[in-house]
Amino acid sequence: QVQLVESGGGLVQAGGSLRLSCAASGDIFSINDVDWYRQAPGKQRESVASITTGGNTNYADSVKGRFTISRDNAKNTVFLLMNSLKPEDTARYYCNAVVASGPLRLTYSYWGQGTQVTVSS
User: Fold this and answer.
1) What single DSSP character describes residue 90?
2) Sign of torsion, CA 115 20 34 39?
3) H helix count then E strand count, the chain
4) Given CB 3.0 to 4.6 Å as the disulfide criterion, which of 21, 29, 50, 65 pairs with 100?
């Protein structure tokens, strides 16, 4: 069984910064692509940033230049550094990871429970 736990959310003023973490635990063989998503009340969940096993990154246009995704493979953790935060960044942020685990190294997609980010104006 694999678990993803997000942390680092909170309340911040516009222009501030937060760093989110997504820590994976369990019988992990490898963590492949990892994505950060967010969902604001009344809106669909949207992809914010992604990172491949090799470290290639991709960002939504709305966060380019402000957010940086990175990973520490030794710690099975992915980070999302969010700078110059805006009120419209307010949402619950989730990580989604494709993980090979267990004795058979089966690959599944896992979600964390999310962490709330609130940006005040």
Assistant:
1) -
2) positive
3) 0, 11
4) 29
